[in-house]
Structure formats: C-alpha cells, structure tokens
Write a structure and sequence with these properties.
mainly alpha, 17 helices
C-alpha cells in the first residue's frame, strides 16, 4: 500500500509545480510587456488560476485518479475526438513547458560558466544537455526524480524568500521605485495579455490532481492544498515583480530579459547575489524539467490507456513508457528551434484552453460534484477570453507566435481524428 500524502506534502506539490522554471523564464518577458504594471499582470493570471483551482478541487474529490486532468476531461466529454484532442494538447503543452524550462536553464547557465565565445550557442548546448541529463535520470530511477524534487522545492523556496526579504529592504529609498506608479503601466489590455503570456508560471497547481488518490483526509486537505498553494504563489510572484521593477531601470531589465531575476539581486547583494539567484534558477529549472518529463510521459501513457492514442504508447522502452523518449526528443527539437516568447505564448494558449475545458467540465458535472455552477462558468469564460485576448494582441506583434499556437492545437485534434478513423477502419474489416 502506498504511503499517504499529508497536507504539507500536497501543498508542496502545488508550490513545486508552479515555482518551477516559470518565474525564472518569463519574468523579463512580463516586464517587457507590462512595464510598471507587471505586478498587476501576475495578479490577473493568479486570479484566473485561483478560480480554475475551484473546479480542480471539486473534480479531484469526486474523481480522484492519477490521470488527473485527463480523467476529468474524459468524465466530462466521454472518450472521443474532442476529449482525445484536448488530452493530446495537454501532453504537447507539457513538452512546451519542458522547452520553456530548458530555455531558461540555457539563459542562466552561461552567466556562471561560458563554454564558447558565442552566448547563443552556449544557451543551446546547456538547454539540450540538461534535457538529456534529466531523461537519463528518469530512465535510471523514478525514486531519484522524487528525491531531487523534494530537495529542490526547499532550496529554491529558501533562496526566493531570501531574495524577497533582502529585496523589500533594498526597495527603501530606491530611485527606481517610482517605475511602479500607474503612469508607467501599459494599457489595461496589455496588462491582461502580459498576464496571459506569463500564465505558464501558474499552471503547475494541476499536478495536485495526479496525487489526489494518495492524499489523506481528502475532504479537508485537497481544497486546502489547491487554494493555499495558489494563494502563496500569487503573493510570491507579485512581491518578486515589485522588487524587480523597483530595483532596476527598465533598460537594464530589457538587456537582461532572459535572466532578469539574477540581475535584480545585484543592487542588493552584488555579484554574490547574482550568482546565488543564478544557481537557484538552475536548480529550479532542472527540477522542473525532471518532474515535467515524468509528468509528460505519464500523461501520454494515460491517454493511450484510455484508447485516445495507439496502445503502442503504453509499451515500455527500457524501464519507462515509450512516451518518455518521445517527450524528450520533441523537447530538444522545440528548444533549439523556437524563441522564448514563442514557447511561452504557445504554452499559455494551450493551458488556457485546457483550463477552459476543465472549468466547463466542472460546470457540466456540478450536480455530480456538489459544486456551484457559477464559479466554473466564470472560470470557463475568463480562460477562453483571456486566450483570445492573448492571440489578438500577439497577432499585431508576432503573427508567427499565433500560427505556432493555433497550429499546435489543430495538430492535437488532427492526430486524434486520424487515429480514430484508422481504428474504425480496422473494426469494419
């Protein structure tokens, strides 16, 4: 019998899933889009995550399953092309998150040790190497993955909370504090779309759903785990955004966009602070890659088990599902072909659509789960319109990002349609 997960462990799964590589990868991007209104953008994204977590609470209590989101979507829509397409999108979104984390690792690592004279080449070498290392660890032992996660959550939280402590002290009398005033905010629409680009920094709370069957005293602990972890991370991200915008000139933030959190530690702690935050970023992104590789291969396995992908995906390659190797290979391709903003946009669009569908399931099954109908409905509308706002805003700035995001969604449904068509043909023979 597996050991039950207590409240503290359940909350740490949620916090660990959110405070992975996301904040290190997208903070500079958020400031570039929202300027002084960056804390507001993090608040908007956090509130959408909090509303969505209500649907996750109710569905996790009614349908506790290690398939998590996959299980909820199948319960709401049955096994078919729509549910299969959304579940495929979930798997691909995991891969996009992996590419985002690896890209962040590649941006921070050359600041500690340069391999060549070309920083872009160094970033790609580091990003690819860390994916390969994490894949090897996943093949070696899942227990090692779990140990790395438990230590990494503690280390990164200690470092980030120390950054917050020193940062808030350092803000006193800082000349850049004025950058947070509303006159430096972008338009309301831009604040919303900046919040949606960085929405990927919040998506990790959904990992609690996969642990739901093992959480002790679920009626009390599942709601607490979701709500406390999301609320804690909202407060943490807003504070980090305030410190970053209040400590550095916008020009310096733009120059160090890919490793801005390390740069923000410099005014308070100098080169040592820069190095400590860089190390925290490397630990965080590495642990996020490790956990997401495992999560991505599990999602792929669950989809195949539910007959939404070929049964061959349930096969073992060495000692893990074949999906682990496919997940790793596609991650390597993405991280070496796409820009950070394209990866972040595609990830946010994917998760906003997935969360809109999960909220819709929460609305559809409200009677079964004993939940309010209005909160999941609000969540569905907010996620869907936030996704549209993100696509509209990006279409004026970078059409290619929009085509990549929409192409990934379309591809998720096309492969499901083809698979179902082939299966039908086989049955009629």
């Amino acid at each position: 019998m597996s050991k039950k997960i207590g409240l503290k462990e359940a909350i740490s799964i949620g916090i660990g899933g959110m405070v992975g590589g996301g904040i290190f990868a997208v903070l500079g991007l958020a400031v570039a889009l929202a300027k002084g209104g960056t804390p507001i953008s993090f608040l908007i994204a956090g509130l959408i995550a909090l509303i969505t977590s209500y649907s996750y609470v109710k569905l996790s209590l009614k349908y506790p399953d290690r398939g998590g989101t996959v299980k909820f979507i199948n319960e709401g829509f049955g096994i078919g092309i729509f549910s299969g397409g959304i579940n495929n999108l979930l798997w691909i979104s995991y891969i996009i998150m992996l590419a985002l984390y690896a890209s962040a690792f590649g941006s921070y690592a050359p600041n500690l040790f340069q391999l060549t004279d070309n920083k872009v080449l160094d970033s790609h070498i580091y990003a690819s190497s860390i994916v390969i290392l994490a894949t090897a660890i996943n093949y070696y032992s899942i227990a090692v993955v779990g140990k790395i996660e438990s230590y990494a959550v503690i280390i990164k939280l200690i470092i980030l909370l120390s950054f917050v402590g020193f940062g808030l002290y350092g803000l006193i009398g800082n000349s850049y504090l004025e950058q947070l005033s509303p006159k430096h905010w972008e338009s309301s629409f831009k604040l919303l779309t900046a919040g949606m680009v960085i929405f990927v920094a919040y998506e990790g709370f959904e990992l609690i759903a996969n642990a739901a069957p093992d959480i002790e005293n679920p009626e009390k602990n599942i709601p607490r785990a979701y709500f406390w972890s999301v609320l804690f991370v909202i407060c943490l991200y807003i504070t980090i955004a305030i410190i970053t915008v209040g400590s550095l000139d916008f020009k310096d933030i733009a120059t160090a966009q890919d490793y801005v959190l390390a740069e923000a530690a410099k005014p308070m702690l100098g080169k040592i602070g820069f190095s400590i935050i860089t190390i925290a970023a490397l630990i965080s992104t590495f642990s996020a890659i490790n956990a997401s590789l495992y999560g991505g291969s599990r999602v792929n396995y669950e989809i195949a088990e539910d007959d939404e992908l070929p049964k061959q995906f349930t096969c073992q390659l060495w000692n893990q599902p074949v999906g682990l190797l496919i997940t790793a290979v596609v991650t390597l391709i993405l991280v070496n072909t796409l820009q950070l903003e394209s990866i972040s946009t595609a990830g946010s669009v994917g998760f906003l659509l997935i969360f809109a569908v999960v909220n819709l399931v929460g609305f559809k099954l409200a009677k079964n789960t004993g939940s309010s109908k209005s909160i999941p409905l609000i969540g569905t509308i907010l996620c869907f319109f936030a996704m549209l706002a993100l696509l509209i805003q990006h279409f004026t700035v970078s059409k290619i990002d929009v085509f990549i995001a929409l192409g990934i969604i379309t591809f998720s449904f096309i492969i499901e349609y083809i698979y179902k068509a082939v299966e039908r043909t086989k049955q009629h023979k």
